[in-house]
Write a structure and sequence with these properties.
The complex is a heterodimer of chains A (98) and B (527).
Chain A: H1 8-17, H2 24-41, H3 76-80, E1 86-87, E2 90-91
Antiparallel strand pairs in A: 1-2
Chain B: H1 12-20, H2 26-44, E1 47-50, H3 52-68, E2 80-84, H4 111-118, E3 122-127, H5 166-173, E4 179-184, H6 190-196, E5 199-202, E6 222-227, H7 230-240, H8 258-261, E7 270-274, H9 284-299, E8 303-307, H10 312-330, H11 348-359, H12 362-375, H13 380-401, E9 407-411, H14 428-432, H15 439-444, E10 448-455, E11 461-468, H16 473-487, H17 504-515, H18 518-526
The chains are: A mainly alpha (98), B alpha/beta (527).
């Protein structure tokens, strides 16, 4: 496992990737907490996992297939019911294209 | 039980029998719960929303059905339940304890709650929880802190009800509903049940549909009930579970009659005791509790088998990679566009960042960042893939153990309930250690139950955990019944929380006790 201390710039980069704004103060405490958690999970390095398959599904159940047809929909009012801003059946967002 | 016992203090199964025998009505039962909530909720803060009108309407329909022909009564006809605020309820605010879901009113119903209403249950309201189920104390909720109805002997310190299903455990323990839905990603049903003297079962992954449950970590999340008895847990789980095409991980496998399973033969069952759960610094009290559980089984004719689950210690760190990784992906949907909170921003990215910064609490942000980091380019193999491989090893440990034993017995938690706010300045990892005995079960997708095993020296409930083979909830519950038969059900604690809205008789009693040094009386009653 990568032995790494993350610095404040990395915290800011991750926060931006996750689309969460953090203040300078938050970045500092997050840096400390994240490093604490990351150094703790490094315990896993001690466990040999060569040749072990990663577990991606506990049930092992096959995903069920169904007919490729529309089973739901035509509920624009329900879809937009909780939208912070909407107009004419659309979600409204800040201008994206200049 | 107090001689002035009111209807809300009945077990779910007793209430069911009395409703069918027409000794009580669903309206009376529902009203008893609603007045108990009114008297308690200021102090316990278990309910975020009380849906009294809806409850009485449902109860009335149940009474009509029961009056017409008690034989037509459905499995949970007229039974008032509380619903964890993580289950979407049509037209009733659902927040998952987060500011970012603000006034979200789902236009649809979760499969689990729909199953309960189809079984005739009555909805009392929505119960508090840690924000997005991330926590072990219900203190990360944006909507205030729920209080445990239990207090240490001679103390008036408020204790946490566990988490994340702390609203559910507090409400059930205090008699503010006959049972509650809960969910468990790393221990969120079992740990709060242990802290409040209640029963909680997390079924096998895939038993209950996740459709309409606010997602935390999708490969670990499972719904289950918190109740005041094993039989009640069996009845509720029976109604909650189903195969559901709306959840691709839901499993098409028949669930046996769980109530019937409770009376089946127990003798000769093999109980595994894993040595790796004897963690460093385990308190004498927890050790003694575990020994007591082993003794109960020995006397019931079970065979005790020492087993080894070698990767136990790795489960918690692996969990704290897998769960945040999945959470960071699941919580990407909260963007301020389609539902929930929206903050203003200069442009769309700024709007996203402001919305998520204001809408998420500290613990949620921490986990989103950890998840984003371990999934980011260059780190994926080192963290996420490694953790998924360790997860395979944890599952293999259990597969091997279940070659020789029927169930595994461990303590549920390393400690009893702790004080509200007492871990405020603690390292996040210290709070995570609450899940040390429970996360393995989620990592392997197994069914796990917490049943009260006794009281600590301070008079606080402690839980024993029973882990079963995949889809063998029947044996898990059967084994839980043996513990409950030996230990007895935990009573509802003396209602220190009952305010002015309480019945005059209760108030008079309360005053008399306050004057009479209540703690001793309380202790006697808990016996």
């Amino acid at each position: 496992m990568a032995k790494s201390e993350i610095d404040e710039a990395t915290v800011r980069r991750i926060a931006h990737l996750a689309r969460v704004k953090v203040t300078a103060e938050e970045a500092k405490s997050l840096q400390r907490e994240l490093n604490g958690i990351l150094s703790w999970v490094e315990e896993l390095n001690a466990i040999p996992t060569d040749g072990v398959e990663p577990l991606t599904s506990v049930g092992g159940a096959k995903l069920h297939m169904r007919e490729d047809v529309v089973t739901d929909g035509n509920k624009p009012a329900a879809v937009l019911k909780n939208a912070p801003k909407s107009e004419d059946g659309f979600f409204l967002v800040p201008k994206v294209i200049e | 039980m107090s001689k002035t016992m009111s209807l809300n203090e009945l077990t779910l199964s007793d209430a069911r029998d009395k409703l069918r025998a027409k000794e009580i009505t669903a309206i009376e039962l529902t009203e008893a719960c609603l007045s108990a909530i009114e008297a308690a909720n200021d102090a316990l803060k278990a309910y975020l929303v009380v849906t009294g009108d809806k409850a009485l309407e449902q109860a009335k329909k149940s009474d009509e059905r029961l009056a017409a022909n008690a034989k037509d009564a459905r499995a949970l006809e007229g039974i008032p339940l509380g619903i964890k605020d993580l289950f979407c309820t049509d037209g009733v605010r659902t927040t998952a304890g987060s500011h970012i879901l603000g006034n979200f009113e789902p236009p649809y119903e979760s499969t689990v709650t729909q199953n309960l209403w189809d079984a005739g249950a009555v909805m009392l309201g929505k119960l508090n929880m840690d924000e997005f189920a991330m926590g072990s104390s219900t203190e990360t909720s944006y909507y205030g802190q729920t209080v445990n109805p239990w207090r240490a002997k001679g103390s008036d310190e408020n204790l946490v009800p566990g988490g994340s299903s702390g609203g559910s455990s507090s409400a059930v323990a205090a008699g503010l509903c006959l049972g509650a839905t809960a969910s468990d990603t790393g221990g969120s049903i079992r740990q709060p049940a242990a802290f409040t003297g209640t029963v909680g079962i997390k079924p096998t992954y895939g038993r209950c549909s996740r459709y309409g449950m606010v997602a935390f970590a999708s490969s670990l999340d499972q719904a289950g009930p918190i109740t005041r008895s094993i039989k009640d847990a069996a009845l509720m789980l029976q109604a909650m579970a189903s195969y559901d095409l709306k959840d691709s991980t839901s499993v098409d496998r028949p669930l046996p009659d769980l109530e019937k399973a409770l009376t089946q033969k127990f003798k000769g069952l093999k109980i595994g005791v894993p040595k790796e759960y004897r963690v460093d610094g385990m308190s004498k009290e927890i050790e003694a509790l575990w020994e007591k559980g082993i003794d109960i089984y020995r006397q019931a004719g079970a065979e005790i088998v020492d087993i080894s689950l070698p990767h136990t210690k790795a489960a918690l760190p692996a969990y704290y990679i897998v769960a945040p990784a999945e959470a960071s992906s699941n919580l990407a949907r909260y963007d301020g566009v389609r539902y929930g909170l929206r903050a203003n921003g200069r442009d769309i990215v700024d709007m996203y960042e402001e919305t998520r910064s204001h809408g998420f609490g500290a613990e949620v942000k921490r986990r989103i960042l950890i998840g984003t980091y371990v999934l980011s380019a260059g780190y994926y193999d080192a963290y996420y893939l490694k953790a998924q491989k360790v997860r395979s090893l944890i599952k293999r440990d259990f597969d091997d153990a279940f070659e020789t034993v029927d169930v595994v017995l461990t303590p549920t938690t390393p400690t009893p309930a702790f004080g509200l706010g007492s871990k405020k300045d603690a390292d996040p990892v210290e709070m995570y250690l609450n899940d040390i005995f429970t996360v393995t079960v989620n990592m392997a997708g197994l069914p796990g139950l917490s049943v009260p095993g006794g009281l600590s020296a301070e008079g606080l409930p402690l839980g024993l955990q029973i882990i079963g083979k995949p889809f063998d909830e029947a044996t898990v519950l059967r084994a839980g019944q043996v513990i409950e038969d030996a230990v007895g059900r935990m009573p509802i604690p003396e209602p220190w929380w009952a305010g002015d809205a309480a019945k005059p008789a209760d108030n008079a009693k309360k005053k008399a006790e306050a004057a009479d040094n209540a703690p001793e009386k309380k202790a006697k009653k808990k016996k």
